[in-house]
Amino acid sequence: MTATLIDGKAFAGHVRAQVADHVARLKEEHGITPGLAVVLVGEDPASQVYVRSKGKQTVEVGMKSVEHKLDATTSEQDLLAVVEQLNNDPEIHGILVQLPLPAHLDEDLVINSIAPEKDVDGFHISNVGLLGTGQKSMVPCTPLGCLMMLRDYHGSLSGLDAVVIGRSNIVGKPMAQLLLGDSCTVTIAHSRTKDLAEVVRRADIVVAAVGRPEMVPGDWIKPGATVIDVGINRLDAPEKGEGKTRLVGDVDFHSCAAVAGAITPVPGGVGPMTIACLLANTVTACCRANGLAEPEGLTA
Fold it and tell me: Active-site residue 18, yes or no?
């Protein structure tokens, strides 16, 4: 491997330390404790693990953590009532409704019921529009984490050629907007892109967020390019024993690492940054709600 490893776990620790420091100052100087509320509907195992981790890390940085766990059969009306209660709670600065929701619930309706200023996931249509027009918004956590790592590695991103593989509302589209905001030349590629390999080979920065395991091989990567792998895919790993799995990204790590200048691993790359940026967004939302200066280095 010749590429520099971008250690997302270590970087996330640095972000959490910055958040904790800002939280301590908010408490000491203004008597304010940022509050994050997470709403979980149903018993999806992955969601339960994720919500526990969010709650644990929220408390560790000194913030107030509130969890609402609702039955999988909860009606849309009852879920919206919980969100409205949190919208009106002055001690809650960030609200996150864990996705996916049970099939009988309208995810768009629920997301757009969250007060935009408390939408720390950055999924509300108002925040999407603000980001797309270059205005101050709440930014989705995973793309924000990717941007932070890119800025840390490169310094200025101005003039770099970036390719985002994937066009989801959660990662691909906001990632492209953030890179445009930092003056990259941006291409959004996807499953129907013609000559995808050639498109990717032009890129100084490749962000892979397509959800297909090891889709991007090393011979697609421009020598010296930076590769940010957002993918988290489980593959069978019989060598570890029956029923065991291994985590891989959307790029073939070993072949890409032999060519790239820098690369994020899976696991330990982008993943840890998502919750760290959720905490950062909550502090940012708290500061905005109280007319205080936003924490430097924790926003887009």
Answer: no
